[in-house]
Amino acid sequence: MTTRNTRQCVLAGLAAIAVPAAAYAVPYTPPQAQLAAAVDLTGAFGGGGVVTNVQPAAGGALYTGNFDNMNGGSLGFSRIVLQRGGFNQDLSSFSSFDVNVYLVSNVTGFGVKMFMQNGPSFTFIESPFVGMTQGVPVLVSRDFHDPVDVPDTNNVRQFGFQFFGPPAQINDVSILVLPTNVAPPSGDPTWSQNKSGDWNSLANWSTLIVPNAVDAKAIFAGASTAAHTVFTDAPVTVGLLKFDNASSYQISGQGALNLDVGSGSGSVSVLQGSHKINLPLTFSDNTAVTVAAGATLTLGNPTTIKANQTVTKSGNLQIQAPLTLEAGASLVTVSGVTSLFGTPSLGAGAQVDVRNNGLAIEFAGLGDGSAAVRSQLVSGYNGGSWNGSGINSATAATNPNKFGVGYARATELFTTFPATFMGQPVTATSVLVRQTINGDSDLSGKVDLTDFTFLAANFNKTGGATWLQGDYNYDGNVNLSDFTYLAANFNQSVPADGGLGAMVPEPAIMSLAGIFAVTALTARRSRRN
Predict the structure, then answer these.
(1) Which of these three, 443, 468, 499, is where a domain ends?
(2) Is the same domain home to 149 and 234?
(3) What would the pLDDT profile of 379-392 be if each residue is shown by its tens digit?
């Protein structure tokens, strides 16, 4: 499992000041303008920082801010102050008030204090420092009582929070300020904006917590009524990613996306619409990619399946950038044609299992890729068992004497483009792959006279033969072994489940053999002449 990056910290806080409602009806929340002008301490206090992206958040009087470049300084720690200067409030009528902050950090050793500065001398009053352990929520609380704990409450000059971190640089730290009259958010993090925006902004998520951790969930549902882009310039890790909107989402930016779970399997699902992940994508664990009927998921940047992990795919998945499977990794196509860009890069023992489906491999700008596809099919064929590394088929492996996996250039099967292959649009620069019945030269899903014509025209071809020409056992030749496959399966078709159709009566096979003998003899005489 992936270890969280300790140079990146996502900090979510829920802060409130509880006071008697009759005297002070609305709990204090630092205004946006003051947050934007938060103090950046330097010099003897150690490192400083920059507070950016301060904005109202959903759900009430909420504010968020991102801390960047929190560098260690001369005192061996980092310090950022988020405060309201010029607060100048008279709170002497209150017997007490409380400040509570809930914090979650993915960096151990990070912590917080609350403070007030009162009176003409700006007397500094603060809560105890509370450190945090990676991934463990902690409560920071301070009861301020007048006059023992808080002198000069008639002249409260400033109020705020101090955040301390280790001396190493920590980027992308966020805090949320939430007043007591707004209920804390709950549920799974769901994009809450009907607009494009930054993945790493708390304000854009329903839970006001940025999903960026092993097992984190990120859901893009009904908030959007038009196509929008969610961008991240930092690496993001989730265990579950779900799209459920007819309007398109595109995940983009200079960052990267990693699918990672602590146990079990990850999940990427598209319930409706056409959506695109336009970031480098890594599957660090077994993951199910499920695309509903009529929906589409496009991967627009290089995609990697880590060693010994399996990605199981259902529905319309279009991979428009290089695909890498590390050693022992697998891509399993449970349903639907899968679009690839070039032949996948396969580590030792890696495999693409087409089951009873197909591949549309695009080679635009890459030259003729048919030889590279054949090479991976020969490896998957594995001497006739269809269980080798490369491109194979668990369906064909159940009965390799009946089933196989064929291939052809799109231009060998179609004359006009875009054409449709197994329900998927394809171009003239594609190489097409399909699990089918041995003898199905043209990948139509059935064995008929068209296939017989291809084989007969190339019978006795030695070396360099293709599946389309009748080389069904990948030995490079077209001979009696290949004719035997075709004859045994003649007039059969591939049903939806990949099983066999009805068997052909023996007289039909004998008639085909007679036709073959005449056709082959004619072909041999034609070649001699």
Answers:
(1) 443
(2) no
(3) 999 999 999 999 99
